[in-house]
Amino acid sequence: MTAPIGATLLKLEVILSATLLVLMVGLIFLGGVARMMATPLNWTIDMATCFFAWGTFLAADVAWRRDGLMSVNLIPTQLSARAGKVLTLVNYILISGFLVYLVYAGTWLTWVSRSRSFQGIPEISFSFVTASLPVGAALLLMTTLVKTRRLLAPPKEDRAKRPVAPH
Amino acid sequence: MLIVALGFVLLLFMGMPVAFAIGIAGALFFLQHPELPFTIPVQRTVSQTQNFALLAVPMFIIAGNLMNKAGITERLLALASVLTGRLKGGLAQVSVTLSGLMGGVSGSAIADAAMQSRMLGPAMIERGLSRGFTAGVLSFGALLTPIIPPGIGMILFGTIGNVSIGRLFAAGLLPALLLWLGLAIAISVTARRRGYQPERAHTPTVQEVTRSLRASIWALLFPVMMLFGLRAGIFTPSEIGAFAVVYAVVIGAVVHRRLSRGSLWEGLSTSVADVGAVMLLLAFSAIFSYGIVLERVPETISSAITGATDNLYAAMALIVLSLLLIGLFIDATVLIIMLTPIFLPVVRQLGGDPVHFGIVFIIAATIGNFTPPVGAAMYTVCSILKCSIQDYTRESAFLFVSVAAVTLILVFVPGLVLFLPNLLFG
């Protein structure tokens, strides 16, 4: 059940974060050109940094799903398959705990900062930026749980359900 | 902070992704200090993504990936082969030269090492170069990429330390040339001893050189234009980064006609994961650095260094040596983010030039990407080439000695670093 949903979600996530990156490029480019023509636009920078937060955490989940986060595999590779599996499981549990905290504290902070305005713009709440972290952490948590499930699943099921990263 | 540091090392060696290890270890500090608001880690993480100067990081990552798809890499490879294929060590020499040339369009050592491992790695092993040496060359060669403008490390250092990024960009060029020389000599010596053959049988003709220069002109012009853009003081580095992306698309789609919709998407999709990995690390490192600042770790280290020596160059050499040592375990991006605020004040206090120090610091930190047991470029290259860390370590020791020696020369001869920026920026 999780595999097709995971694949769709990953695709959506990649598209969304790529779109945010492209928008950031466009906004900064526009800001530079506008200033060169002596009509500076200050909102381009504000919007780009706002997208930056969302882009960062969505892209982080893409990297995590694709096993693109760097790590030190010196000791795990020296262990037996079983011990390595246990160590990976411990890692996933610790990461999950940390992410649960980020979701909780992030949601709380998003709630209390709703009256703080973003870059002094009264219409936009800073919560909109802060929310990127709990949402990103929730996605990372989901990815971690999927990874844990795959780790614990019997080998043949593991092969059948391995999602293919779209390019 | 001791528990935080120990926790970090423990998690690191448990194989946890570094970004999470930094975040979780950093959070331990808050568990020890229940009087601190529990939302600070979240605030710190989010605020890291609100730094406009850091926007240059994703910009140059995207630009580098798109330049790769824009048909620039193949042209530069042809140029590198014409220029240095005749040297002993063949493709190994070509690979280091290509890193230097790629440095002008891309700013990440890890990306360069990954790209070249896929492009040149198998051919190098096929030509009879040992797997470990191939991996070592592909990894250490990538040292040139981040110190030839643009460089992500220079952007991070300049932003955090409040140092002119234009000056840093200009200052990287001459040291890069020296590092190339150091690596080329090391490769030649190894090649002579092992009988590795040159890639090309004859010395290139003037015609050949001109032809490949002309084919690569857009890639070669880019760093020059960028330096002048920054020199004029009209644009911020983030804007230059956004221009670089647009430039890559225009060159790829219109001039070289190599960038299709499919390859544009591929470049963007790769960029997403690259940006995610770097930015998550940056974001979570803010949790870690909170305790460092609160417990005045920089001051403690500063006074330790100034207590040991009040000679500027001796202090810098000490810093370089400790960076090489810490770099065994921690990668460049993390080192630059965490240690710039610690070491730069010391150097300033002793009357050092921040640009001179910056370049030396970035080189020493970047070497950390290549040195075992922990090095991102090393892991990337070794996993692509299926090379064991033991082979890699044994075969790349000489390359390490050569670049470390060049770095120490740069410490004691600041003119080598400062000549170009002083010429260009006055």
Task: Describe this protein's structure.
The complex is a heterodimer of chains A (167) and B (426). Chain A has helices at 2-36, 43-65, 81-112, 127-130, 132-152, 155-161; strands spanning 117-118, 121-125. With 167 residues, chain A is mainly α. Chain A has a two-stranded antiparallel ribbon. In chain A, a hairpin with a 2-residue loop joins strand 1 and strand 2 (121-125). In chain A, helix 1 runs antiparallel to helix 2, helix 2 (43-65) runs parallel beside helix 5 (132-152) and helix 3 packs antiparallel against helix 5. Residues 157-162 of chain A have low confidence and may be disordered. Chain B is mostly helical and 426 residues long. Classes of the chains: A mainly alpha (167), B mainly alpha (426). At the A-B interface, helix 1, helix 2 and helix 3 of A face helix 1, helix 2, helix 3, helix 4 and helix 15 of B.
List its salient traits.
heterodimer, A: 167 residues, mainly alpha, two-stranded antiparallel ribbon, B: 426 residues, 23 helices, globular
Question: Which parts of chain A are unreliable, with pLDDT below 50 for 5 consecutive residues or more?
Answer: 157-162
- How is the biggest beta sheet of chain B arranged? none
Strand content of chain A: under 5%
How do the helices and strands follow one another from N- to C-terminus of chain B? HHHHHHHHHHHHHHHHHHHHHHH
Radius of gyration of chain A: 20 Å
Strand order of the largest sheet of chain A: 1-2
Number of helical elements of chain A: 6
Structural class of chain A comes to: mainly alpha
Got a strand count of chain A? 2
Tally of extended strands of chain B? 0
User: What quaternary form is this?
Assistant: heterodimer
Describe the secondary structure blueprint for this structure.
The complex is a heterodimer of chains A (167) and B (426).
Chain A: H1 2-36, H2 43-65, H3 81-112, E1 117-118, E2 121-125, H4 127-130, H5 132-152, H6 155-161
Helix pairs in contact in A: 1-2, 2-5, 3-5
Chain B: H1 2-13, H2 18-32, H3 40-48, H4 56-69, H5 72-84, H6 91-103, H7 109-119, H8 121-126, H9 131-141, H10 144-147, H11 152-161, H12 165-194, H13 206-215, H14 217-231, H15 237-255, H16 261-294, H17 297-308, H18 312-326, H19 332-349, H20 354-367, H21 376-385, H22 389-412, H23 414-425
Helix pairs in contact in B: 1-2, 2-16, 3-16, 4-15, 4-16, 5-6, 5-13, 6-9, 6-12, 7-9, 7-21, 9-21, 9-22, 11-19, 11-20, 12-20, 12-22, 12-23, 14-15, 16-19, 17-19, 18-20, 18-22, 19-20, 20-22
